[in-house]
Amino acid sequence: MNRSRYLFSALSFLSALVVVACSDAEKGSSGSSGSGPENGNAEALPCDVDKILSTKCQTCHGASPKFGAPFPLVDRSDLVAPAVSDPNKKVYELVAARARDTARPMPPPPTEPLTAAELAIFDQWIAAGMPAGKDTCVDPGGGGTIDPPTLSCTPDVLLAPSAPYVMPKDVQDQYMCYGVDVEIGQKRHLVGIVPRIDNSTIVHHILLFKADEASPSTPTPCNGGDIMGPLLAVWAPGGKATELPLEAGFPLEGTAHFTIQVHYSNIKGLDGQQDSTGFDVCTTTELRPNDAGIFALGTEDINIPPHGSLDVSCDYQFPRDMGAISVISVMPHMHTLGKHLSSNTVPTDGSEPSNLGLADPWNFDNQIWYDNDTILRGGDTVRTRCAWDNPGNRAVEFGERTQDEMCYNFVMYYPSQELESKVEDLTSPTEDVSCVTTK
Ligand code: HEC
Question: Recorded E.C. number(s) (predicted)?
Fold first, then answer.
């Protein structure tokens, strides 16, 4: 099998996180209950503004911020405070900007962005000079909680570290990895995956890989070069559980190796934070009719000139004798210079192309499996296009470090075939993939 050495290596994820050293914006956490304002309270927000923050923001920016959010957004004073990432700006100015930022939106995906009506309420409040609220808000406020997603199956396997990760208070941002080996014996199907979040104050997002070999069971800093195997599940706050359709399951046999990667964020420098986050998994001996698989489309032939851009499209034609395959979901993957990734069929009969993934603009902070129900048939051609801009004065090539670049579109599908990597490979060119650079 011509499997790319890097293909399923540690996917670099969010490591360019903007770090906001932020202790003095902390004030809102004392004295603010997050509940509706009282008459004459200068800290109170008008109820329409309060409602937006409590429903869309305080799941993370609550009185005790969660999932790596740097400060509370509970009281008026939280919004008029100077922003720590840019002391020349006030927090409300950053809120207005990030709520409209398509590349790094707040709230972050998969949570829905603010609606035009919500943005207008916020803009009008700023234009009016950010008056304090006068009424007691009916809305309970205080921020909803992000309910952990649920599965329709009953988990029978817990993937957790053998000891908790203890986060040093002077580490702001850290990717930790650990392995779990599960004795499966006779073939089983893995059919559902849901995260089990332990310490939501510091967990930013988590990934589950099926691995080729065992790795340490205690959390150790992830090594970007580790080969991890196919990425089975990704979770960020607000995300869903992963459930395979009834027609398919991921085959497991003998000893199954898994690697879990947890991204931690402790921007506020809290002391003594510990975490044992992992995944609950459903496996079954009642085998589904099909094995599920994952393959990748794209290219590793990447070289983006300094102060320049690159736009590459690669075509792959499925073997003519291949039976139909059903796509379950797709996950585009690039690094921080990516601008666009799209993947679609190229019909020859004049019919509409089917979308197999679109990330435009590409958002490095939003790497999830998107549901997709395309049927692919033998002889079909799929075109995967990646585009980058490189503002730096050094050429950027393919590689696994965050400062390198990638162009993969992962496709989860059934029934499993010998497809694995349909990526233009630098070292051993794949005959059935052909790429053109359009700019
Ligand atoms: C799922 C958790 C989550 C939700 C929901 C969320 N945020 Fe954030 N927010 C974060 C994290 C994590 C950061 C720090 C990383 C970053 O800047 O992207 C952040 C950073 C920010 C910043 C940048 C601060 C700075 O100094 O640069 C602003 C402004 C912000 N959030 C506003 C909002 C607003 C307004 C909402 C609701 C409309 C919201 N956020 C909803 C997690 C969240």
Answer: 1.14.17.3
Strand, helix or coil at 388?
strand
Condensed to tens digits (0 to 9), the pLDDT of residues 218-239 reads: 999 987 644 456 889 988 888 8
What are the percentages of helix, strand and coil residues in the chain, rounded to 5?
Answer: 10, 35, 55
- The residue behind tokens 């993957």 is 333
Distance 142 CA to ligand 1 centre (A): 16
Judged by average pLDDT, the poorest of 50-59, 193-202, 228-237, 388-397 is 228-237
Q: What Cα–Cα distance (Å) separates residue 365 from each residue in 34, 61, 115?
A: 28, 18, 20
Q: Which atom of ligand 1 is nearest to the CA of 97?
A: 29
Take atom 6 of ligand 1 and give the residue whose Cα is closest: 107
Q: Are 227 and 212 in contact, with CB atoms under 8 Å apart?
A: yes
Q: Is CATH 2.60.120.230 the classification given to domain 293-437?
A: yes
Closest CA to 369 of 255, 258, 199, 234: 234
Cα 398 from Cα 303, distance rounded (Å) = 7
Q: Does the pLDDT at position 138 exceed 50?
A: yes
Q: Is 99 in the pocket of ligand 1 (CB under 6 A)?
A: yes
* 60 Cβ closer than 6 Å to some ligand 1 atom: yes
What pLDDT digit, counting tens, does each position of 59-84 carry?
A: 899 988 888 888 999 999 999 999 87
Instruction: Judge if the beta carbon of residue 208 lies within 6 A of ligand 1.
Output: no
**Cα gap 52→112, rounded to integer Å:** 12
3-state secondary structure (DSSP) of residue 199: coil
For the chain, how far is it from start to end, CA to CA, in angstroms? 32
Q: Looking at ligand 1, which residue's alpha carbon is closest to its atom 10?
A: 69
Q: For the chain, give every residue range classified as CATH 2.60.120.310.
A: 157-290
Stretch(es) of the chain classified as CATH 2.60.120.230: 293-437
Closest atom of ligand 1 relative to the 236 alpha carbon: 1
Share of the chain above pLDDT 70, in %: 85
Residue pair 112/204 in contact by the 8 Å Cβ criterion: no
Instruction: Give the count of alpha carbons within 13 A of 162, CB side only.
Output: 10
Q: Which CATH architecture has domain 157-290?
A: Sandwich (2.60)
